[in-house]
Amino acid sequence: MKKFVYDFMEGSMDLKPLLGGKGANLAEMTRIGLPVPSGFTVTTEACNEYYVKNTVLWDELKQEIFQHLSYLEESSGKRFGDIHNPLLVSVRSGSVFSMPGMMDTILNLGLNDESVEGLAKVTNNERFAYDSYRRFIQMFGDVVLHIGKYKFDTVLEKRKQEKQVENDIDLTSEDLKFLTDEFKKIIEREVKHKFPQDVKQQLLMAIEAVFKSWNNPRAKVYRRINDIPDHLGTAVTIQMMVFGNMGETSGTGVAFTRNPSNGEKKLFGEFLMNAQGEDVVAGIRTPQEIQALNEKMPDAYNKFIELCELLEKHYMDMQDIEFTIERGELYILQTRNGKRTTNAAINIAVDMVDEGLISKKEAIMRVDPQQLDQLLHPTFDEEDLKNAEVITRGLPASSGASYGKIYFSPEDVVKANSSGEKAILVRHETSPEDIEGMVASVGILTARGGMTSHAAVVARGMGKCCVAGAGEVKIDEASRIFKVRDQVFHEGDYISLNGNTGDVYSGEIKTENPQLTGNFQIFMGWADQYRRLKIRTNADTPRDTKQALEFGAEGIGLCRTEHMFFDDTRIPVVRRMILSRTIEQRKKALDLLLPMQRQDFKEIFEAMGEKPVTIRLLDPPLHEFLPHEEEDIRALAKGMEISYQQIKEVVSDLKEFNPMLGHRGCRLAITYPEIYQMQVQAIIEAAVELKKEKGLEVVPEIMVPLVGELKELQYVKDIITKTVDEIIEDSGVDIKYLVGTMIEVPRAAITADEIAKDAEFFSFGTNDLTQMTYGFSRDDAGAFIKEYVDKNILEKDPFQRIDRDGVGKLMEIAVDLGKKTRADLKIGICGEHGGEPNSVEFCHMLNLDYVSCSPYRVPIARLAAAQAAINNKDKLK
Amino acid sequence: MKKFVYDFMEGSMDLKPLLGGKGANLAEMTRIGLPVPSGFTVTTEACNEYYVKNTVLWDELKQEIFQHLSYLEESSGKRFGDIHNPLLVSVRSGSVFSMPGMMDTILNLGLNDESVEGLAKVTNNERFAYDSYRRFIQMFGDVVLHIGKYKFDTVLEKRKQEKQVENDIDLTSEDLKFLTDEFKKIIEREVKHKFPQDVKQQLLMAIEAVFKSWNNPRAKVYRRINDIPDHLGTAVTIQMMVFGNMGETSGTGVAFTRNPSNGEKKLFGEFLMNAQGEDVVAGIRTPQEIQALNEKMPDAYNKFIELCELLEKHYMDMQDIEFTIERGELYILQTRNGKRTTNAAINIAVDMVDEGLISKKEAIMRVDPQQLDQLLHPTFDEEDLKNAEVITRGLPASSGASYGKIYFSPEDVVKANSSGEKAILVRHETSPEDIEGMVASVGILTARGGMTSHAAVVARGMGKCCVAGAGEVKIDEASRIFKVRDQVFHEGDYISLNGNTGDVYSGEIKTENPQLTGNFQIFMGWADQYRRLKIRTNADTPRDTKQALEFGAEGIGLCRTEHMFFDDTRIPVVRRMILSRTIEQRKKALDLLLPMQRQDFKEIFEAMGEKPVTIRLLDPPLHEFLPHEEEDIRALAKGMEISYQQIKEVVSDLKEFNPMLGHRGCRLAITYPEIYQMQVQAIIEAAVELKKEKGLEVVPEIMVPLVGELKELQYVKDIITKTVDEIIEDSGVDIKYLVGTMIEVPRAAITADEIAKDAEFFSFGTNDLTQMTYGFSRDDAGAFIKEYVDKNILEKDPFQRIDRDGVGKLMEIAVDLGKKTRADLKIGICGEHGGEPNSVEFCHMLNLDYVSCSPYRVPIARLAAAQAAINNKDKLK
Asked: Rounded to whole angstroms, how far apart are CA atoms B478 and A652?
């Protein structure tokens, strides 16, 4: 006969498909010798058989269950339904995959009008016994008999009103007895038979309810959406209840095997004597530090210490343990890997390697790369935070925490900053013109835009805190206020931003600066040993470059030349260039820009030493450099001695419906080759000068953006090589350089074999590639992407994590086609995804050469790359 | 020894790689017995050998050339360089592929100070002889010796000034003798040796010049861009000159074997006695009808008639023939398939099938499908056109010709139309709000936007003439004028538009209405026999539907529901729906729209009978339905009794940076499911009513736009099926229907296997797919696409012709993946490309089920589909 029921002692983690996650876990803990309250599990196969048998529990199964129940009575010395020392159990569903929508836990099953008295006796606490009983009836009514919970709550509330008490805890045992009777009446009224006093019947009904919950509509929808097969079925786990409130030799507590806040190797936790877990939660009594248990119950304490070591050795990680002591007997209710701060995570990982508990490889896997962000940015003061009021939430666009006075224009921020104020820039959205205000601010809040909007991208690049797309923030620039629902904030009011969560607070919350410990450096060093991917950075300025080097960047994967154009001293020249009517006028303006760009490149090259630097030629549409407000146009006209009408005409000519898909990238060079000519000249002359002056051998990688067709690249490459050849000839200094292209237009991916004929490297621009592959504008998608994620249509915002099935497929095609044409093609990624761990792993799997990300994400990428290499088990050292 | 020179009599079309296009063609004509002036061709292999030998003509080659030259002297009875009856030749380059940038033709080679006298004698025309001589020297100087042409022109101009004459023709033979001497002096001065009097040297120098032109920079660039291998080389063809001006038994003329204007089977052409071709061009003497030659030279005439028949039989097509009679001897200089009007093309094709000259299959291949457009739209009166002034040129966005008074707002157009005026709507760009003005206009001119801009798409749908993206047109709406450079046009001024060419004219040019002959119907019937693709139409109204049926549509491939929303009576309700703050308000507005949409669908279904109708659910972003100008918003607020502020907020909330990639398509349904619910209800209820009332079995195909991910489609499909099921149950009438999706987002193509799990049909939206695959906004690309085509980076605007390598590759992937999941998946295309012949062929090759295009393109698609089937030789009947 097939075995449908397993005692915890018979199982192990390997039987998860049969016992479900919970059952297997309890069996595993039992197997390694933990004093887990005993119990048994009805298998998933029993669930399937139940459906085969048209939802009837068959006799053999019932017998097997009762057999195990009697083992349980035997080992516990308690009896099911007993009036003196009743055995009570919990009943839980347990599928292989955790699945919301299925039946919740039922606690204290086995209580009836008799055994409740037993419970009162053994706990010496009548109130507790009846509270447990009325809760059990309510839960049973709800999840087994499907009686609306509110029906019970109504009666409860009524009683509280009658007794004029506010909290459940203020009800007496008389009240609870009364409620118990009332609840039983509700059940009788609703299902036309009495609440079952037969505890075995209670158990069978609960088991059936679990089986049935496998096929309730919510569970079915969840399975369909998550591709979980219907045939898996659910197991049912029945476990003995234990009580920490059976007098002064009983108690309950929670402990971490190490300090979850800083990682110190010292037991950390608290306990309460003669109490149940919920007493800790209720906060009526103050728990004691775990170490105090040693005085009260040294045996239990020592046993616990021993178990902690056992658990750390077994799970090879810091554990978060719930325990109960029932009449001197220690029970472990639950153990799991403990949550911890990043700081603690690193310290614990490094310590455990020192202790020989885990290998370096395992240590590396212990820290969530995303978490590293916490270490690199300021955080809020814990105490201040407790009293802070969240006024709204936007997108966590750039990490860190900051507080400051609000200003609505970049100019005002700059002014505030120069008079020593901390200023937060609040905008509908930012645009390149706002750069100086962004630099001068301590944080940025926008009402629109997504995770890759201008504000988000620029802030991340600067390592500056930013909350973007906070849709509830209604800005009225004219009145210099913003509203959130009914709250009004004026210019100069303080707010605080949490860039890690997107929370916006009113008032100031102090911040603490990050400190990178020695363990951090050790840990990152280990990560570097394991990764195959190189890590570069996206940096446009010498300052960014230096920051990135400190964080371990091995080169620049993306230097955006346009950001250099926005500098105060340059923008007038850039505008003059754009407003030129003839090629001669344009060249004259470009001649003025040349020495400035050359100096920029020289500084960046010098900062990077001989590490590779990829420079992207001008990308954004020209209208981004022009003002759009009437007032600003008039000012510009006056300043440049060009007629208002003329500027107005150019602005209107350059206006685009969909600038994202407009006249930008290499398309500019096809219309105005002289712009790229100037930029290439600046790049190569910078390299020539550095070679002459310092003997530095710079090999610039010149990157052409937005290529979708080989001939575009050829046209631009012709311009580049001609320009370079002339400089080399004129200067007599030979400079090696590469010409490559972004792969950011779907067509480039699809025709990568063609494009690789002339591209010496590819760099995936996954921001734009995602925009075009999905047809999502990253600036507009905020309006619906949240809904998509909420409704489970998208698992994750594809601008945050590479969409492997769509965008990733195109990347794969591009890599395959590209390498078919050019086996040694160098391939990297410089989109925002380059600093997101899951995406970094995907890049590793695609066998890219490097990922490039903003400076503050370099450590994240380093660790993610190491984890990817380990997870994908190739080229391990 | 290898043979490097072929007499015309030795060659044929098969030797094209050796003789080049021109040489092979002349050999072929000689082979079939035409009296072509004799000559010979130096092969492409000789050219390659010339480069192997470091660009030196070797003796064996020279001997071979002179050998053939002496054969030529023999057969012609003339001698090279002779003072009495000189042999003159033309020298031409001839590569396998026609190639701009290579050497032009040199005429009259063999003239020197002696033979010029001979030419004067035999033509009895000294002026002609010296004119030929000075032209030859100039041409030789230019193309062989690379002396700037302007140097000769300067001398010529100076002489004309001195003699106070305006035209070359007014110079006397003395003048020409003088110029001959001057030209020789220029050459001596420039190249430091005299103009070669040795005619053999002239010949060798010309041959070398042709060889060298193979490797000049322009030719090299052209080859690189067009993937023409460098090793092909060029041939050189040397042909005897003949003269039609050797007295009254000589002459020259041009003739078509049938009438190129209407196709009538009657020789059509003209000739001049004692004249050269250029005399005809100069227009000094009036040529006679070809039939008059019968009286003057019956032998030559009869011979010519005979040759015409021979040529038609050989080339199996109407021929355009150039001939010269030299002293009674008829020579054919050139014959080619004659250009003809569409009308003539169809009549000739049908006649030739009747005559047994060609098969139906061949007849179908004779008409350019694109040309059919001419037949379906008005054209300009030929006479009026001659005096018309083109003021600018835009994109030929929608076929036809029209004239009318200009107006700058839709309202003014409507007013003008109702008072009986023909009005042309002139706009920066049109938007959906302009629809009524577009309907009331006779033509549309826009300053911006491309071939698939709103104006273009809507105009084509209406079969209305439209010129789009005329960038030179600067509109000043406030002053009600537009400027083109310095010309100013005021409201009410007449202009005329040619939608086939994009030309814009000032003033009125009368138009003629199209007439479809019986042959058109016969011809299209033949096409229908051969095609495999079904042809559907894009139609949103019963009127469009009827027009398309007349043109042979077999169903509707795209019915856009949003156009129905813009109707005057509906837009207020639509706006109320959009401005709703609660779902209840929105549903109330939708309830008002329901009966209107239901009626629309009913009428369209009824017009189509039981032919398939694909209805696309709402696609555009909601802001398209709202006003954006302050004034309009205020008016709306007043009309709807909603606060100005509230509307303003919604408008600003809905504003998008890149609406193309924004909140539209099925994304709307994910946020507002009730909109699609209403539309589906309208569709199905319409079908139910028609079944009840008329017994019509409509099977609606419900199409979900902008799907990029299976779960999007699943979400929407759930809404659809639930809605339909309810109606079917309530009404008791069973309606079959299909749910499918557009494939217009690259991600949909890449994940088509997934999407086909829930899509019962695919319809390629190649407009959007092209936009996203290239990253080109169709509304903005006008600014650079022309440059792309001009610079040969794009062979063709991808919005006009499917880009097979990129967009086409994605389509192929989608078809393959889609059919892998669902073998019987129905696949069509409903983008603008569905009516473009090259794209239709591609759809045939992809084995799509149908193409769908605007009503006026249905005949084009029918013919293109037939040609595709024939070209790709499958399923021929």
From this structure: 15
Is residue B356 left, alpha or beta, with left meaning phi > 0 and alpha meaning psi from -120 to 50? left
The complex's ipTM?
0.80
Angle between helices B44-52 and B199-213 (to 10 degrees): 80
Q: Which of B93, B179, B106, B90 is nearest to B141 (CA)?
A: B106
Burial (0-12, 13-18, 19+ Cβ within 10 Å), B2 = exposed
| Mutate which: B747, B774, B777, B797, vs A, most A CBs within 10 A | B747
Phi, psi torsion values for A701, nearest 5 degrees: -105, 110
Q: Report pLDDT digits (tens) over B554-573.
A: 999 999 998 788 877 888 89
Asked if A750 and B773 touch (Cβ cutoff 8 Å), the reply is yes
Contact B660 A658 (CB under 8 A): yes
Q: CATH number of the domain at A377-512, please?
A: 3.50.30.10
So what's the architecture of B531-621+656-871 in CATH?
A: Alpha-Beta Barrel (3.20)
Structure tokens at B145: 């010796």
3-state percent helix, strand, coil for chain B, nearest multiple of 5: 50, 15, 35
- For B122-195, CATH number? 1.20.80.30
User: Phi and psi for A613 in degrees, rounded to 5?
Assistant: -130, 120
Question: Tell me: domain A247-340, CATH 3.30.470.20, correct?
Answer: yes
Residues 6+ apart with CB under 8 A from A68: A5, A7, A40, A238
Please state, in angstroms and rounded to a whole number, the distance separating the CA atoms of residues B512 and A530: 78
* B650 in Cβ contact with B591 (< 8 Å): no
User: Active site includes A84?
Assistant: no
| Segment B343-360, tens digit of pLDDT | 899 999 999 999 999 999
So where are chain A's domains?
1-112+198-241, 122-195, 247-340, 377-512, 531-621+656-871
User: Length of chain B, please?
Assistant: 877
* Interface check B781 vs A, CB under 8 A: yes
Question: B101: helix, coil or strand?
Answer: coil
In 3D space, the residue among B383, B371, B382, B404 whose CA is nearest the CA of residue B505 turns out to be: B404
Residue in this structure with the two tokens 């109204």, named with its chain if needed: B541
Give the whole-angstrom CA distance, residue A104 versus residue A138: 13
Put the strands of the sheet holding B251-256 in their side by side order. Answer: B288-289, B268-273, B251-256, B319-326, B329-337
pLDDT, mean over chain A? 92
Q: Sign of the C-alpha dihedral, residues B760, B763, B768, B770?
A: positive
User: Active-site residue among A47, A308, A377, A454?
Assistant: A454
A147 and A186 in contact (C-beta within 8 Å)? yes
pTM of the predicted model as reported, rounded to 2 decimal places: 0.81
Is B477 touching A (CB cutoff 8 A)? no
B439, exposed or middle or buried, with CB in 10 Å at 0-12, 13-18, 19+? middle
Q: Is the pLDDT of residue B877 over 70?
A: no
Amino acid at site A289: E
Q: Chain centroid to CA A466: how far?
A: 16
Residue B392 pLDDT exceeds 80? yes
Q: What region, left, alpha or beta, does residue B775 occupy, with left being phi > 0 and alpha being psi -120 to 50 degrees?
A: left
Give the minimum alpha-carbon distance from B604 to chain A in angstroms, rounded to a whole number.
31
Contact criterion met (CB below 8 Å) for B774 and B782 = no
Q: Token digits for B718?
A: 């759930």
Choice among A830, A833, A843, A853 that is catalytic:
A830
Residues A731 and A688: beta-carbon distance below 8 Å: yes
Percent of chain B with pLDDT over 70: 99
Task: Let me know if A275 is exposed, middle or buried by CB neighbors in 10 A (0-12, 13-18, 19+).
Answer: buried
- Check if A146 is active-site: no
